[in-house]
Description:
Blueprint: H1 2-15, E1 22-27, H2 34-47, E2 53-58, H3 61-75, E3 83-85, H4 89-92, E4 97-99, E5 102-104, H5 116-128, E6 133-134, H6 136-146, H7 150-158, E7 163-167, H8 169-172, H9 179-182, E8 189-193, H10 199-206, E9 209-212, H11 213-216, H12 221-230, H13 232-245, E10 255-258, H14 263-282, H15 289-306, E11 313-318, E12 322-327, H16 331-338, E13 343-348, H17 354-360, E14 368-371, E15 381-386, H18 400-411, E16 419-424, H19 427-441, E17 446-449, H20 456-464, E18 484-489, E19 507-511, H21 520-532, H22 537-555, E20 566-571, H23 578-581, E21 589-592, E22 617-620, H24 641-651
Parallel strand pairs: 1-13, 1-14, 2-7, 2-8, 3-6, 3-7, 8-13, 14-22, 15-20, 15-21, 16-18, 16-19, 17-18, 19-20
Antiparallel strand pairs: 4-5, 9-12, 10-11, 11-12
Helix pairs in contact: 1-2, 2-3, 5-6, 13-14, 14-15, 18-19, 21-22
Amino acid sequence: DVYNNIKTASSQKKSGEDAVCKKIYIQAPTGTGKTLSTLYPTVKALGKNFIDRAFYFTAKNITRNIAEGTIDIMRGSGLNLKTITIHSKESCCKCKNYVDSDFLCIPEQCQYAHGYFDRIRVAIKDIYTSAEHFSFENIIEFAEKHKVCPFEFTLDLSLWCKIIICDYNYLFDPQVSLMRFFEMPTEKYCYLIDEAHNLVDRARDMYSSELSVFDLNIFKEKENAILKTRAPMLLKNLTEIDKLLRHDDDEKTSVTTSPDVPEKLVEMLDTFIKNAVRWLTRNNHSEAFPTVLQIFYACYSFYNIAQHYNKRYITIYSSGTSVRLYCLDPCDVIAAKLDTAVSASIFSATLTPAHYFTHILGGKENSHYISLPSPFPPENFLVCIDNNTTTKFSERATTYDKITIEIYDAISSGRAPGRYLVFAPSFDYLQELYARFYAIYAGKADIIKQYRGMTAEAQNEFLKNFDTEETDAWGNSNELTRSLVGFAVMGGIFGEGIDLKGDRLSGVIIVGVGLPGISFENDLVKDYFDTRYFNGTGFDYAYTYPGFNKVMQALGRVIRTEEDTGFALLIDERYATPKYQSMFSPEWQVKYLSPEKVSHASADGFEPDFVPDYEPDYFTSFDSHEHELKPFKTKKSKHTIKIILNDFLDTLNF
């Protein structure tokens, strides 16, 4: 389907029949090889000249590494193709400059930028024959050898590559988008958007901007004195902008909103930006240069986002401190960026519900949606639902103790110790459960937890506990004598992207439905969709769907191969309602603690609160209402977690 989508789009582009990118949205279970299944047909399309170049966009380093490894596998079968991975400018920089902890690139003060164009051709010629894939380490080595800026070296080298692997922001972020490729495309591009569920929040952040009085008032005394004598106009501009931001200084606690762009502020910023550009080009050795440059970037970022302002934005005024342009619905800007290609494949293990993701990720009338069934044996995975317990914020304090006991019942099921992850909706909730569990069961299980601000090293140490090698790196035995329980946050670093195959993970316990925290911004999104469509849509778009996406990602940690077995325990009464049932995967074995309390969907399936003006063209669809939910029934009324899980694990000889 990916290959046919590219082929059709290419022929239409060639004939001038359709200038709009053909988009295909693909939901496929974790562990099914989405990376290979999208890259292989793309390579084939490159070989047939249906496209000139392909971009593989990711949200995280781990998926970037998987894409690189997949291409290496194809090279082992004879693929001859130049590829490159683009890393962030900060990670590449050899002479980092920081102002108030903010990274700044200052070419005028960089030895790798001076004379760059005199040395770049020799550097490219030298590296080009050294490898088929230009990795971070490869680029750093040759950049140092030829004394060229590693980041600019990467960008120039990418012009010679057929597949470019990089972060979302190099296409979607208006501040750092690769203009050499996407400003006025002259080639036929194909975009592969991996883990696309992450793009919703990322795009919303990329197309939002805030300007604060604190961004403007960062001059040190000496710098201020320099500007007073050498750039009085700049100081005057900044003073006027600062005064406008403080116009309601008497009501500093109030927050107001407006559907209109702050035109007067944008005009002032336009004047400042023009004056700042003139000053910066003439005073690159001034002591005040880095600070002026930092303020320039802050102002330009806000000004740039203001150019995208439309009916899908709202302006937030925090009196006396800041103005924020907040993107409520990024569908237009995502669609515009995708339309710079002839074909785009947007894929993830969690693009449910289809109408939400096709709308908010830029889907149009010619978009297609495919939901693929799991190829893994359904009998290997049980989803057990405790629909007797609430985790709602107003009542959660009354169920901490009950859930703690339930977690132990779940992890102590089976004949042998296992490795388990417990996902909580927030760090505060995690701490409540962890403290209780540790106090009661510290002698009966090995217990670890995720904490705020975990370093990469600490993350790796956390995951090493799930290794199944006979000994660890220090020669200590990894053999389980009692179960391991890791507490983590839903939607966090351990909630997606980690690959715990085989015995590395026996099951997950998910507490709550993953709703994002109630916030002013999320309520604005809710109100926007309620007003634009009708009541009920807004809560789902702002809270329900993003929350359930985190649940689905956590569930996806359990079954990674055909041999994997395991279970998921979902703790919240809301999982027994038609809205949540409609989002369940049709392959799940679903068993409820209290079957009599389940509110089943109608025979026709649960209808979503909002259906877009267009219907996506479904090549293949496996709708949840085709799956008849069969609540688990025991002989008596003993619907306990331990009974249900023991029955399941006995069938697997676990």
